[in-house]
Amino acid sequence: MRYKILIFGIIFFIGLLVVMEVNKSAQTKILEISDYIKIFFLDSRDSIAKFYEKYFNQAEAIETLSAKVADYDKLLLERETLKNDLHKLQNLIGRGGITHSSSEIHQARIISFASLGERDRVWLDSDLSEYHQGTRLEDRIFGIVKDNVAFGIAVVENGRLEGFLNGNKDCHYDVYIGKNKAMGIVSGSHKGRMLVEYIPNWIEVHEGDEVFTSGLDGIFLENIPVGVVESVRENYGYLSVDVRPYASASELSYVWIIDIAVPHFTDESMRETSNVP
User: Fold this and answer.
1) Which residues touch 11 (CB under 8 Å, ≥6 apart)?
2) Whether 128 and 251 share a structural domain
3) Of 94, 122, 144, which marks where a domain is finished?
4) Which of 5, 27, 156, 274 shows a CA-CA span of 20 to 30 A to 140?
5) What kind and span of H or E run contains 158?
């Protein structure tokens, strides 16, 4: 009887050890599965968080970069304005009859073409209340600049800003051509290219010459690139050239409007002018 109790005790102890080992193994398996599930959900959460963070950071970065590009374009135009003003002031030092003019640059958005099938006329959205108010807006012509090159002109029609792009028959502004600065007038289009006419035929003009704004018409600032001469021909005592414009109408978005105030005489220059016999 004593041996039976001893054997039973030994068997019970061995059975207890086996059960504990099995429980330990089962517990380990359960913990491993639990850890896998936790890690899976944590990894998924981190991946989703990183995805959204990356997306929103990219969107924010793109928006920031777009704003910086717009500011950079405007700064380039303002720099050109200051350079032109400085050049004019240097030329006028010590002379009478100095005039005063100022220019501003406004952002505008192209909202639609003016009519179907006419891709060189557009409607623009811009706050006209911010423009120079010295003269009637309807009597003025504004320059349009896109990507720092001349894109066309704009006028106010019935309280709306209408744009006539390069090549349109109503788009006219003064330009210089080549190193000799031959003067010409943008006058619509010819054979699919922008036409510049009324160039003096005694000044040499060549294919490949760059065309840029003269700033003499009060529409554009001086030295804004327009395009490149592709062909030259003589036309009734003057030259005409076909120009490949730098600006493209394939992508219509935001542009800059050059708002140049009408020059006026200063008080001192008026007194000097009145004393002239």
Assistant:
1) none
2) yes
3) 94
4) 274
5) none
Helix (H, G, I), strand (E, B) or coil at 202: coil
Measuring CA to CA, which residue among 143, 138, 150 is closest to residue 244? Answer: 150
CATH number at residue 161: 2.40.10.350
One domain, residues 147 and 236: yes
- pLDDT, residue 237, reads 87
Q: Structure tokens of 177?
A: 């051509």
Rounded CA-CA distance 131/35 in Å is 67
The amino acid occupying position 68 is K
Of 94, 116, 134, the one marking the end of a domain is 94
Q: Are 269 and 101 in contact (CB under 8 A)?
A: no
Reported pTM? 0.64
Residue type, 227: G
Give the pLDDT band of residue 187 (cuts 50, 70, 90): very high
Task: Please say whether the beta carbons of 100 and 263 come within 8 A.
Answer: yes
Q: What are phi and psi of 92, to 5 degrees?
A: -100, -5
Instruction: Say whether 54 sits in a helix, a strand or coil.
Output: helix
The closest of 63, 140, 156, 65 to 108, measured between CA atoms, is: 156
Nearest one of 17, 245, 254, 25 to 146, comparing CA atoms: 254
List the beta strands (DSSP E) in the chain: 99-100, 103-115, 118-125, 142-146, 149-157, 160-165, 174-177, 182-190, 193-200, 210-213, 225-235, 238-245, 254-260, 264-265
| φ, ψ (nearest 5 deg) of residue 247 | -75, 145
Q: Quick one: what percent of the chain has pLDDT higher than 70? A: 58
Choose from 89-98, 105-114, 219-228 the range with maximum mean pLDDT. 219-228
Number of domains in the chain: 2
| Whole-angstrom distance, CA of residue 275 vs CA of residue 96 | 12
Instruction: Kindly tell me if the per-residue pLDDT of 42 is higher than 60.
Output: no
Burial label, 211 (beta-carbon count in 10 A; 0-12, 13-18, 19+): buried
